[in-house]
Amino acid sequence: MEEIRNHEFEEEGSTMEKVYIAVGNDLQEGFKTIDWALKKWNNIPISIVLLHLCNISQDFVYTPFGKLPASSVSEEKLQVLRKYEEQKINKLLSKYVTFCGKLQVKAELLKVEKQDDSIQVLILDLISKLRITKLVMGITFMRFSSSWKSKSAISGSFYNVAEKVEYVRRKVNEAKLMIEEKKREVKVNAERSHKAEWAISLCNCRIEELEAGIKEESERREKLQGTLDSDKECIEEAKNDVEKGKAKLISLEGIREELSSKVKTTMEVKSQAEAELERVVLKKGETINEIEKLRNQRDVFNRRIEFCKEKEAMGLVSKEEVKCGYREYVAEDIRLATENYSDRLRLRSGGNWTNVYRGRIKHTTVAVKVINNRLSDDGFAAKVKLLNEIRHPNLVAIAGFCSEKPKCILFEYMHSGNLRDNLFTSQRKSRRSKILKWHDRIRIAHQVCSGLGFLHSVKPKPIVHGRLTPSKILLDRNLVPKITGFGVITTHSDQSDTKPDVMAFGVLLLHLLTGRNWPGLLKAMSMNQTSILRDLDQTAGKWPLELAKELGALAVKCSSVNRGGNMEFSTKEIMEELGNIREKADELRIIGGYEEATDSNMEEGDPNDIPSVFMCPILQEVMKNPHVAADGFSYELEAIEEWLSMGHDTSPMTNLRLDYQILTPNHTLRSLIQDWHSKRAAHVSS
After folding, report:
1. Which of 65, 146, 656, 666 is buried most, with the most CB atoms less than 10 Å from its CB?
2. Per the record's keyword annotation, is Transferase included, yes or no (predicted)?
3. For 138, how many CA atoms within 13 A lie in the half-sphere containing its CB?
4. Do 472 and 404 share a structural domain?
């Protein structure tokens, strides 16, 4: 170890305390370390000893090309390189001394050459020999140590001096506070990163939209460019025609000159020509008058033609208005659809035959209901008109009618049968029956109440069903309930009294809870509402007891509307309570993991059966280009556009006013219809 001291600021026998500062080759880091030491002991007189560690190795030498083995260069070149390295270090140390001089601080230099010993041993040796009490060094100074090689290490200064335990504890507490602050910063940065990722995803979506718009704009631009090119060709053709016209004009000018010369030679016949001209002028005036008369006659005929066209168009519109909501079929169509009213296609309800047949007409599966012949023609027409005007997602929609004998009405076909056959145990052996889970039953109750409430809200007088039973509620493929049998007018009851429907709905709720058609059920529930918990239908799965209690209480409340005197309970209030119960049921299914609905005897349906969702409510045909209207229903584009063009501002399904007339393509439904067509074609070919 070699020591070199700078005696420029040294005063022997000085009483100032010495502070040893370890500096390295990083000049800025060394300046920061010196500045830190001066600020640390700014209240006591000190002198500085700059400690620099030189790594001298006999096996390697530092060159402009990096670290090379000493054996790779000549001895003379080796001496030159080491001398150059020493000069560079001396120049560096002189900058440190100059910096201390600017700060008016005494500075000495101590250069230590490190060969094979570790830096820890050298520092301990220096502390022991020189009796160092204060030693300051930056983290990056320790790069000679195998454990501190990173130049990106946290910058800081350390000094070796005896301190009290309180100081150390204070530093530890400060470090803990700093760690907590860093943790908070990391958490904030993580939240910012999450928000940034969310913003990036939004930007990506926006970019995709812009790219689609750019692509569409490019295609439009290409079309416009094609149009522009064709227009340019037309302009070129017009220019050619103009050039040809100019050539003809020049030739005509020559002819005119020839004629002028001939006119000069024919002056003797001028008088005869003038007389002839007067005669022609008179003839021209007569011709002009005749043309004006013909023009007037033409205008009159055109106005008559336009009037006839408008009248014919109005006649077509009036016919379409009659046929838009439903279609009229002849008796032959109905016989073909039902195979001449075959018993094979006759539908049962609760094991009993009905007057309803399953049929296919215009590639659509429908339910054909034969009407009693005792109903007059006016009554039949009124019934058809009423069924067409009353449309709701939870009411069975009319598909057409036949006024010839036997009179019949065509309804949309409900593939899952009626609620009675699906609910009561004795009828569950049907191939179309399904097990209704508890959440399906709550949903069905809510949707049935929605349809019933719509009937009760009809103006000017509400429509009372009067015979609401499980057999009057039909289910489609997705177990969506639809009420049938409404619109039957009775003369012995108050047509505006909705209490019978409310009572019947209460009984229906009890049927959904218990799955039983027990006459004494309502009486037992009225006496003890908790008894419903013992009679819950176990095939519906594990009922949430609180929801079952609420549903049972609502059923008793509905069934008791006629017993409380002035007690009023509308379907609107029932809808609100059922809506709350349904929301709770949905939450329980998500949070509590309640089971999904399963079918007992489900088997693959007939591919020829057309799902009702594929049918246009107006045309009653499979849609090719479905569009969603403001009422939320999908229609064939041409049908709904024709409906709106005729001045209708209400929904064809609900008769409610449409908020807007913008139509949105239903790409999802169109894809499903195309898949259905493909599967149907494959089934037919097989």
Report:
1. 666
2. yes
3. 27
4. no
